[in-house]
Design a protein that fits this description.
Blueprint (H helix, E strand, L loop, with lengths): L1 E11 L2 E9 L5 E5 L5 E7 L5 E3 L13 H6 L6 E2 L5 E2 L3 E4 L2 E4 L8 E2 L12 E6 L3 E10 L10 E10 L3 E10 L3 E2 L3 E2 L2 E2 L12 E4 L1 E5 L12 E2 L11 E2 H7 L5 E6 L6 E7 L6 E6 L3 E5 L6 E2 L2 E2 L5 E6 L14 E2 L5 E8 L1
Antiparallel strand pairs: 1-2, 2-3, 3-4, 4-5, 6-16, 7-10, 8-9, 11-12, 12-13, 13-14, 14-30, 15-29, 17-28, 18-21, 18-23, 19-20, 19-22, 22-25, 23-24, 24-30, 25-28, 26-27
């Protein structure tokens, strides 16, 4: 195992973007920024041993704050919070009181608001083990940030191991009741060469999903996918899926397994031989195949990557039939997602 730390790549006010790259002996390396806890690169070898970046991200960190990126804002590789995905109209009732959050997308609150965790600087501690290296990313969200109640302390622990697993563990505590739903918004493209994802295959361990209204907020229904164009229980190429869904996938799938750790999704590329298995403690996964993904600084573009966002259901505070996401004092939010290459 090895770690490289690049300090002061880009000063921003009194702080600066640093990059931490951890690697194992099997040519797998992960680069993480202290800004947004962004995963900027995941290099994985193909069947011939050629290692390439399989996620959407920039080598030049200044691109993350350039006008073109901020105006199109795809959240590449970032941690999203306090609440990932959407909260309809940005409001909900908590213990009898209406909470109005910032609205930042089509009249809703999306991925934590105007300045969510994706735009914050995180403290970083390195912990090295015999067969793994962890980056402990920490951030404290103050009471009232984006109008969320409570002071929320968050740790996101990134761990690369010699057995070719990369885990993302989340911990959070609060001093007031507050909704919490954390995820990571990395876009994967296993081709590693900029080709779109059409030839890749996907399988999702889910027989139900939560349909959306015209503002992309869940209606509250839970619909069976089996035998429909939304069904991903058996492997399908994205190209086949796009024939039925011209704009691709952007749906919250409810995982079938109810145990603590369960397989959520599996993607493969038949040419390079790369594969990725996603295992999680979360109850659902948002599959977004990037139809609206922008092309910025010669990276990305329509259908250039698929985001596999393990999460609780969107708009959960407004849907009593969805699993709750309210974190209360003296309890700890804990979730984990594991990528197996």
């Amino acid at each position: 195992m090895n770690i490289t730390i690049e300090k002061n790549l880009l000063p921003i006010g009194e702080k600066a973007i640093d990059r931490y790259t951890i690697s194992n002996s099997n040519k797998i390396s992960i680069s993480v920024l202290n800004y947004g806890a962004i995963i900027s690169s995941v290099k994985v070898p193909d069947k011939n041993g050629n290692s390439e970046n399989i996620v959407l991200g920039f080598e030049d960190v200044s691109n993350y704050i350039c006008e073109e990126y901020l105006s199109n804002y795809p959240y590449w590789g970032a941690v999203c919070g306090r609440c990932a995905n959407r909260i309809g109209e940005g409001k909900f009732i908590l213990d009898g009181k209406e909470i109005q959050l910032e609205k930042n997308h089509n009249g809703s609150h999306l991925h934590g608001g105007i300045e969510g965790f994706d735009k914050k600087f995180w403290r970083v501690a390195v912990k090295e083990g015999k067969d793994h290296i962890s980056l402990i990313m920490s951030y404290t969200s103050v009471d009232g940030e984006e109008h969320y109640p409570g002071r929320l302390k968050v740790d996101v622990i990134y761990t690369l191991a010699e057995n070719d697993t990369f885990s993302i563990a989340y911990r959070a505590t609060t001093d007031k009741p507050t909704p919490v739903n954390l995820t990571n918004h990395t876009y994967f493209n296993l081709t590693g060469n900029g080709t779109d994802i059409a030839r890749m295959t996907i399988k999702v361990n889910a027989s139900h999903f939560t349909p959306l209204n015209d503002k992309l907020v869940p209606t509250g229904e839970i619909i069976v996918t089996t035998g429909t164009k939304y069904d991903l229980q058996e492997p399908v190429t994205f190209e086949e899926g796009f024939k039925e869904l011209p704009e691709g996938y952007d749906f919250n799938y409810i995982l079938k397994d109810k145990g603590y750790l369960k397989t959520a999704a599996f993607i493969t590329d038949p040419i390079t031989g790369r594969k990725l298995k996603v295992v999680t403690s979360q109850p659902a996964i948002q599959v977004y195949s990037g139809y609206w993904c922008p092309r910025i600084c010669d990276i990305g573009g329509r259908l250039s990557g698929v985001a596999l966002e393990t999460q609780h259901y969107p708009d959960a505070p407004n849907k009593p039939n969805f699993p709750g996401i309210i974190l209360r004092p003296k309890t700890t939010y804990r979730q984990i997602t594991i990528w197996k290459f």
